[in-house]
Design brief:
Length: 417
């Protein structure tokens, strides 16, 4: 079978990605850190070829490929399930003459590009580089209206990595200090965005584009503790304020048409303020992360393998596309819930106890011995995910225990609201 290199996959999807690619006629080759996974995800990784790599270190990934030609030799394509890695994936594809994601999806990995294409559906946005911030050439005061202050984000990152809030009245020095302390690349060309801080409920719209035709699958609603997403209800179409659904769909339609996207999944995230949705992350070319693949499977009576086979091949125009899953009509599937739990104050995880014989699916995200940050600091604070029908998850989450170096802890989570 032809090899497809995968750079970027989360713990839940990793349980199914190897089988999904094999069902589509491809052999998976993973670039990943084996020590970063536990349980079923770790077992799945052991069942295929994996080259250890820190995918957050761009230079290290490029060096690994340059030093070991066997990785790319006879490979057909390279892809991944993190859209923020699409620019790196595209660079590798060009260097080694591999197929890769659709170029439009690569371009839309930038929040700055998305905001420029559909400004009427985006928060007020300033686009700039780290170099411009260092020269104090970016003044937050020029961004209006922003009555609740600002959100600073790297243009090509996810999971709140590098994000910060700036209060109203912040100036060029405050913005540069936030960029400089974000712990990310200090390359002068590194792109950033500053957006008005929108207060509202977080919804995402799941779907895909095939031959330019948009298929809307479901809305979901997230719960958050500060910067950490900790829960997801799917479908959540009935929870949208009146009129917001049409505006969300109009935003996605405008983005697809203006960008020229012809195929690929999307996981478009909106903050809904009153009845007005603002697109804050487009996530073009991939399915939603966390446990959304399992929620879609449960809601629509499908197999996660079937869904991911469609996601991965639709995102590679040269691969040919696996059959479209038989999704139910939008919003009509069974109610599913997933808790992406962490622990207050953070700590070193030694193990996790999930309900024995429970009805829910459990994915341990933090491997044994891993130290996680306090819940609220970003999605890197996740310890595990409990996913199932809503009534089952609401009951079984009470029996989850996180064992730490400091003793047993209750998981931290909140319901979507």
């Amino acid at each position: 079978m032809k090899k497809i290199i995968v750079l970027g996959v989360n713990a839940t999807s990793l349980k199914y990605v190897p089988q999904a690619l094999r069902s589509a006629g491809f052999e998976p080759v993973l670039l990943a850190d084996p020590e970063a996974f536990a349980g079923q995800a770790a077992q799945s990784l052991r069942d295929c070829v994996c080259y250890p790599a820190d995918i957050q270190d761009r230079a290290a990934v490029l060096r690994l490929l340059a030093e070991d030609p066997s990785i790319t030799e006879d490979a057909f394509a390279i892809t991944g399930l993190y859209d923020e890695k699409f620019p790196l994936i595209a660079e590798i594809a060009a260097t080694y003459d591999l197929h890769g994601p659709e170029p439009v999806a690569v371009r839309l990995a930038s929040k700055a590009e998305v905001a420029a294409l559909i400004p009427e559906f985006s928060p007020p946005t300033l686009r700039f580089t780290a170099g411009e911030a260092a020269r104090l050439a970016v003044d937050p005061a020029t961004l209006a209206p922003a009555p609740d202050g600002y959100i600073l984000k790297p243009a090509e990152e996810a999971g709140a990595r590098g994000a910060a809030r700036l209060p109203q009245g912040s100036g060029p020095v405050d913005l540069w200090n936030a960029v400089a302390t974000a712990g990310l690349s200090q390359d002068a060309a590194h792109p950033w965005v500053l957006q008005a801080d929108i207060r509202g409920s977080l919804f995402s719209l799941e779907g895909y584009v095939t031959d330019g035709r948009i298929v809307f699958i479901d809305f979901s609603q997230r719960g958050r503790i500060s910067w950490t997403e900790v829960s997801n209800l799917l479908p959540a179409d009935s929870r949208l304020p009146h009129g917001a659904e049409d505006l969300c769909k109009a935003a996605v339609t405008a983005l697809v048409e203006r960008s020229g996207l012809s195929q690929g999944y999307f996981h478009c995230e909106f903050l809904v303020n009153g009845r007005q949705p603002f697109l804050i992350d487009a996530n073009i070319g991939r399915l939603g992360g966390a446990a959304i693949v399992e929620q879609l499977a449960l809601a629509h009576a499908l197999d996660p393998v079937e869904i991911l086979a469609h996601v991965l091949t639709l995102g590679l125009p040269a691969a040919g596309t696996s059959p479209e899953p038989a999704y139910h009509a939008q919003g009509s599937g069974k109610s599913t819930l997933s808790y992406y739990y962490g622990i207050e104050g953070g700590g070193q995880v030694t193990s996790v106890t999930a309900p024995d014989g429970g009805r829910c699916l459990h994915t341990q995200v933090a491997p044994k011995g891993a130290r996680v940050g306090p819940v609220g600091t970003g999605d890197a604070a996740w310890v595990g995910m409990l996913t199932g029908l809503t009534s089952d998850v609401a009951r079984e989450i009470e029996d989850v225990v996180v064992h730490t170096a400091d003793g047993p802890r209750r998981p931290a989570w909140v319901a979507p609201s």
